[in-house]
Amino acid sequence: MNSPEHENLNSQRRGPHAAISLGAALGFLALAAAGQVWAHGVRGTTVPEQAACLQAEYDDGEPMNYARVEIQAPGSELPFQSGRTDRNGRFCFLPDIPGTWRLEASDAMGHKLRLLSRIDENMVPSTETMTEMYRDGPWARSMKIVDGLAVIFGSAGLIAWWRSRKRC
Which CATH superfamily is domain 52-140 in? Predict the structure, then answer.
C-alpha cells in the first residue's frame, strides 16, 4: 500500500510542523521559567515609628477629608512627600532631618491650610511650636458674605444707572 517513497514524503511533511511545535513548546517553557527566575516578591511589616501628623479641618470643625497634601523638608524646594488626608483630615509622615517642615493641605474648593512644624534632633515633632498660616482667616466666612452682597448691590446699581441713562 504505502511505498517507501510515499512514507518518506509524509515524514518530510511532518518534520517542519513537528519541529515548530517542539520549538514553540520549549520556548514557552523557557519563558515561564525565566519569568519566575526574574520575578521578585514583596513582604512587609508594621513598625512603630515617631510620625508627625497633620490634622486639617475647616473653621466649623469639619475635617478636610481627602484634601491634597504636600510636605516640604527644611531647605528643600522639592516635595518630601505628597498625598491625601484620610477621611478624618489626617496625614502622617516620617521626617528624616531636624528643622522646620512646611505642611500644606488644599481642597478642591480653594481652601488652603499652611503649617510650619518643628522637628527636633530626635525626629520628634514639637507641637508647641507649630505655627499656623491661614489663607482663610477667622473673618473669611463673614467677608465672603460681604463680598457677595457687594457684587449684588453693585450689579443692581449698574443696571439702574444703565436704564436711567437710556431714558434721557
Answer: Immunoglobulins (2.60.40.10)
